[in-house]
Specification:
Largest sheet: 5 strands, antiparallel
Strand order of the largest sheet: 2-1-9-8-7
Distance between the termini: 33 Å
CATH topology: Beta-lactamase
CATH superfamily: DD-peptidase/beta-lactamase superfamily
Number of strands: 9
Shape: globular
Radius of gyration: 21 Å
Strand content: 15-25%
CATH class: Alpha Beta
Helix content: 25-40%
Structural class: alpha+beta
Number of domains: 1
CATH architecture: 3-Layer(aba) Sandwich
Number of helices: 9
């Protein structure tokens, strides 16, 4: 009996020590979530409301994909051509296929392309944002609020690591997403043959084995944000990082540890 009591105390002591160990990613970001094969393994403040920067464009792109008219023609509006921040410098009156603007939105994080898609689907950005918030509610993003289509800092524009994970799974249902987000660069053309080139803002693509997407983001208030999706050795890892520090090196460390954990279990 004494041996069992001692053994029980030892196991309890080990569990307490394990629980007391510091989070290995404590200083990486204000909030994060790591999923391995669909199960959350590590998280920090995953329900904290934080600005999501251009991770917003996952919702914009989801609504476009759900609409399904990828061969439609979009005419760049004045509002889209005047967008600030990350952009391809699209010109007012340029005509593109929807699918090319989706590429520019997800790969280059082009605000002008993103805004043009919003205008095309809803007539203007204000009405498109209503669709974004409606869809967010429908798919259970209970801590998410959108105030613009592209991810600019705004008082009522925020999400959580948990909600962004759910949004990532929603957009991953579309088989055309990974072929887009895994490209290192793109060239899109107007119907008149004017070319625009851009490189993937996701530094993991082409550099980290198995990296396939999904979206980066960065603003003054949001800091450095990332939703990374990686498939390797029969496992899938989804990493959501909000207000990160050294985003790319930290992401590599987190992904490496995630795959080591997957192999060990």
């Amino acid at each position: 009996m004494t041996r069992f009591i001692i053994l029980g105390l030892c196991l309890l002591s080990k569990s307490i020590l394990a629980a007391a160990q510091p989070d290995p990613f404590q200083k990486v970001a204000e909030a994060y979530l790591v999923e391995i094969d669909g199960a959350v393994v590590w998280e920090k403040q995953s329900d904290k409301l934080l600005p999501q920067a251009s991770l917003t464009k996952l919702m914009t792109s989801l609504l476009v994909l759900e609409n399904g008219q990828l061969e439609d023609v979009v005419i760049i509006s004045k509002a889209a051509a005047q967008e600030a921040g990350s952009r391809l410098n699209l010109l007012y009156g340029d005509r593109f296929l929807v699918k090319d603007l989706v590429d520019a939105t997800l790969i280059v994080s082009a605000n002008d392309a993103c805004h043009a898609l919003a205008d095309h689907l809803a007539g203007n950005e204000t009405d498109f944002v209503k669709l974004m918030n409606k869809r967010a509610s429908e798919i259970g993003l209970i801590h998410t609020k959108f105030q613009n289509a592209c991810g600019h800092d705004a008082p009522a524009h925020y999400s959580t690591a948990n909600d962004l994970s759910r949004l990532a799974h929603e957009i991953l249902k579309y088989p055309q997403v990974i072929p887009i987000t895994s490209k290192q660069s793109i060239t899109i053309s107007t119907l008149e043959g004017h070319h625009y080139k851009g490189h993937n803002k996701n530094a993991l693509i082409g550099r980290y084995p198995g990296a396939l997407g999904l979206k980066t983001g960065s603003t003054d208030n949001a800091g450095k944000c990332l939703v990374a999706y990686v498939k390797r050795d029969g496992h899938e890892v989804l990493l959501v990082m909000l207000h990160g520090q050294d985003r790319w090196w930290d992401a590599v460390d987190m992904l490496d540890l995630a795959f080591a954990h997957a192999r060990a279990h």
